[in-house]
Design brief:
The protein is mainly α. It has 13 helices and no strands. The longest helix is centred in the C-terminal third of the chain and has 34 residues.
Length: about 325
């Protein structure tokens, strides 16, 4: 594309659109129709320039012009309870469902890594000695030791809030840092599995694996699932940088990035539930079977939410992105 020729051919249309947008009086019917037509043509021009002859200054001007025209055509839209309901019943579960091919393998491989690390630590005294002194290890793993008292060391409400904040930050980091080819996500995931493996190994070597699982499973099933979903989504975002598919890299990153932001909000709600279980159920006096049952029910409820509600929304065309009217204008891409 010869950019100078293109600008010369269409500058009059852009100027006319700008003039219509600056009108202080109400537009006539003919002017409103002209505004819509010019908005559509200018959005197409913007997509052509972005894909064929990107010029920062011209792209910036047309982006602002298209945004102003879109606001004039569609009107200012305010968020409402309808948006929140649509997000919880369509957008978020559909996004989790559509990314299952990433987070399920992530969950399986991560769990395997944690189990192998736990077995290695539990079966190797030298590794245990490198973690802490024998007296410190006994203090960690004995009945009433630090592994058990950790969950009741603070008031339940403040402990739940602290756990929720930490886990939400970890999930958000996985989602945001995925754009760096997914490498930071792998490190965050490994750190989480290492911490889990250390606890598993030390408690199993002390013959108290049943106690460890009784403390971890009530909240850990849902908490780790949320972390795996965040990590899988982050890895998918990193892969989008490498291979955007039939979309342009800019469009692909915009779509996946918006879905990731929505995922962060949804996972914060999921982690709020797991944090509440960790703060109020895990250290409670309930029998171990009852605490684990609560954790299993919470996990199954989330999976049903994803596969039933999210699957139905995904099959109906929901992608977890914002509504079409709020997306930038792009040209169709050949498959």
């Amino acid at each position: 594309m010869d950019l100078d020729v293109f600008v010369t051919a269409h500058r009059a249309e852009w100027d006319r659109l700008d003039a219509l947008l600056q009108r202080q009086r109400r537009l006539t019917g003919a002017e409103a129709d002209e505004l819509v037509a010019l908005y559509q043509r200018t959005a197409t021009h913007l997509s052509l320039i972005q894909s064929s002859a990107p010029d920062p200054q011209l792209t910036g001007r047309l982006s602002q012009l298209v945004a102003r025209a879109r606001s004039a055509v569609t009107g200012t839209r305010r968020s409402s309870w309808r948006d929140a309901t649509r997000f919880l019943t369509h957008g978020f579960p559909a996004a989790v469902y559509k990314s299952r091919h990433w987070w399920i393998p992530t969950a399986l491989l991560s769990t395997l890594v944690a189990a192998l690390l736990g077995w290695w630590i539990g079966a190797t005294p030298e590794v245990q000695a490198s973690i802490a002194a024998p007296s410190e290890l006994r203090e960690l793993t004995r009945p009433g030791g630090q592994y058990e008292t950790y969950y009741s060391s603070h008031p339940a409400a403040s402990f739940a809030a602290q756990v929720w904040t930490n886990n939400a930050q970890a999930a958000a980091l996985c989602l945001v840092l995925g754009v760096f080819f997914g490498l930071p996500v792998l490190w965050i995931l490994f750190q989480n599995m290492l911490n889990l493996g250390v606890g598993f190994g030390l408690m199993s070597s002390a013959g108290r694996l049943d106690t460890f699982l009784g403390l971890i499973l009530p909240h850990g099933l849902l908490e780790l699932t949320a972390v795996f979903v965040a990590a899988g989504t982050g890895l998918r975002l990193g892969w989008t940088v490498i291979d955007p598919g039939p979309r342009t890299r800019r469009t692909a990153l915009a779509e996946e990035g918006r879905a990731a932001v929505g995922m962060a909000i949804g996972l914060a709600l999921v982690l709020f539930v797991s944090g509440a279980i960790e703060g109020f159920v895990t250290p409670s006096g309930l029998p171990t079977w009852a605490r684990i049952t609560i954790g299993v029910i919470a996990e199954l409820a989330f999976l049903a939410y994803v596969y039933v509600v999210g699957g139905r929304a995904a099959r109906a065309g929901e992608r977890g992105d914002v509504e079409e009217a709020e997306r930038g204008a792009t040209l169709p891409m050949a498959a």
